[in-house]
Specification:
The chain is of the alpha/beta class. It contains 15 helices and 14 strands. Strands 1, 2, 3, 4, 7, 8, 9, 10, 13 and 14 form a ten-stranded mixed beta sheet that branches. A two-stranded antiparallel sheet has the order 5-6. A two-stranded antiparallel sheet has the order 11-12. Helix 3 packs across helix 4, helix 6 packs antiparallel against helix 8 and helix 8 packs antiparallel against helix 9. The longest helix has 22 residues. The termini are far apart. About 45% of the residues are buried.
Length: about 500
């Protein structure tokens, strides 16, 4: 017994310190590594910096630490004309992993050409990365990725809300740009999903409160961004997405199915605006004959039955559509990418059990980033990398980010905006994205600085190999178009 006690005491002395190590994050840290990647047939050497930078409270004390990964091309010494892209994902509560490892970064998730996970997990070089034309920093907001609150007494509302998120991230970006000496560089914000709400607000906040002006904002699969569209407007806007999804699954009548998607979508869009929306607005005053004719035409463009449409008074919710479209085959379709099919516990019901797209993506991304961070970036921590972090409750009040983006554009003649949307995205559908663009610039007088790009994939259009190449090239073209000639004044 005495020997056992002595052994236990020695064990605790030797290993007790390790056993009691806290899972914490330093407010400031960085690890630099050097690499190279072949992009569009040319070698691009670069430095990767993985680290943390603080968020300070009003007394100048660190209250949170944000994890970031910064990629700089190393064979370019003059950064004054070198674009800097600042990248966010959304959620809210989502890390920057998605666009980092699957879209614009120099390393690419190992998946098949349609975006499905494969083993062994890991990454490979990204031959389509925009690192050839721009340096990139990927930022994880508080409680996402490795980012954490440092002061447990800080009010969570400091971080978790539309406007508080924008305010503290603007301060963080200002510090990052200053530390990296990038004030002279052409600057761009890119956000995906809720990240579009974030960057739409950030560009206005940075411009008006930090006097930092941007050349471009890229909105990937944008949210509503506070732009009003309730009731019939939003419901009618879903119809073209229904058409695209039904076409992909071969559920449309031959007259539509036998034509190309690019050919039929403008027709569906015109029906949604010119016929479906007015019918929905009429509501109960719509005659029985009119209602029946609209439902029949809606069935023609959506792939679901006229009876189910009438049962919803023409306003078919997306949740029902995902369950209904392939119900006869015992399958559901995905929300974030409706090319993905799922199997529910039972065929009956008005909504699916899970999103088959999202579960597939989580399967691929989580292992890959943990391998990449430790083995390639050499960033070691015992913290869990939160793909989706605890950020609730989230204050969604007073959202005006889409309108704020429009104001920032009017104030800054250099500022360009591009939307990128997947036709099969049912979470942030492409036609509502077009609607947003029209109302960011309601006069149409800035149309030479706005653009829309659509892809035959879903919320993360870049997961499809063909669209990965195309969408990155669209970003390159956008950066080139929004560059300003030396000594060109910012004026109308």
């Amino acid at each position: 017994m005495k020997k056992n006690i002595l052994f236990l005491t020695a064990f605790l002395v030797l290993f007790g310190a390790h056993a009691q190590v806290e899972r914490s994050l330093e407010p400031e840290s960085k690890v630099e590594t050097t690499h190279s990647v072949t992009i569009k047939g040319k070698n691009v050497p670069y430095r990767a910096t993985a680290g943390t930078q603080p968020v300070w409270d009003k007394d100048g004390k660190p209250m949170a630490a944000l994890f970031y990964t910064y990629y700089e091309r190393t064979d370019i010494s003059d950064k004054t004309t070198r674009p800097l892209v600042i990248s966010f994902n959304g959620g809210p509560g989502s890390a920057s992993i998605w666009m980092h490892l699957a879209y614009t970064g120099p390393e690419l998730l190992k998946i098949d050409d349609e975006g499905y996970p494969i083993q062994p997990y890991g990454t490979k070089d990204n031959p389509h990365s925009i690192l050839d034309v721009a340096d990139i920093v990927y930022v994880d907001p508080v409680n996402t990725g490795y980012s954490r609150i440092l002061n447990p007494e800080v009010d969570r509302s400091t971080f978790f809300g539309i406007n508080s998120d924008i305010a503290y991230l603007a301060d963080w970006v200002n510090t990052f740009v200053t530390r990296q000496n990038r004030w002279a560089s052409p600057k761009y914000l890119i956000g995906e999903s809720y990240g579009t709400t974030r960057v739409a607000g950030l560009v206005a906040q940075l411009q008006n409160s930090h006097w930092m002006y941007f050349n471009g904002v890229i909105l990937v699969s944008p949210t509503d961004m506070g732009i009003e569209r309730g009731g019939p407007v939003k419901m009618a806007n879903y119809l073209p997405y229904y058409t695209a999804t039904a076409w992909y699954h071969k559920q449309l009548p031959p007259a539509l199915q036998n034509r190309d998607l690019d050919d039929i979508l403008p027709e569906a869009e015109a029906f949604a605006i010119d016929e479906l929306l007015p019918a929905m607005v009429k509501g109960g005053s719509l005659s029985e004959a009119e209602r029946d004719a609209i439902a029949e035409k809606m069935a023609y463009y959506s792939g679901i039955s006229k009876e189910s449409i009438l049962g919803h008074n023409l306003m078919v919710p997306t949740s029902f559509f995902w369950k209904e479209l392939l119900r006869d085959e015992g399958l559901t379709v995905g929300r974030l990418d409706s090319r993905y099919r799922g199997i529910d516990r039972q065929n009956a019901g008005t909504a699916y059990d899970f999103d088959p797209a999202l579960t597939s993506w989580n399967h691929a991304f989580a292992p890959a980033f943990n391998i990449y961070a430790r083995n390639t970036l050499k960033f070691e921590t015992d913290l869990t990398y939160n793909l989706f972090g605890p950020v609730r409750p989230w204050d969604r009040s007073n959202e005006t980010t889409g309108y704020d983006l429009g104001t920032a554009m009017r104030q800054n003649p250099y500022l360009h905006v591009m939307i990128q949307s997947g036709y099969y995205d049912g979470g942030t559908d492409y036609f509502n994205a077009k609607y947003s663009l029209r109302h960011i610039d309601p006069t149409g007088r800035m149309s030479d600085r706005t653009s829309f790009k659509g892809y035959r994939s879903g919320h993360m259009m870049y997961l499809r190999a063909e669209d990965l190449e195309k969408s990155n090239q669209d970003i390159r073209d956008f950066i080139e178009k929004s560059k300003v000639m030396p000594d060109q004044p910012a004026k109308y």
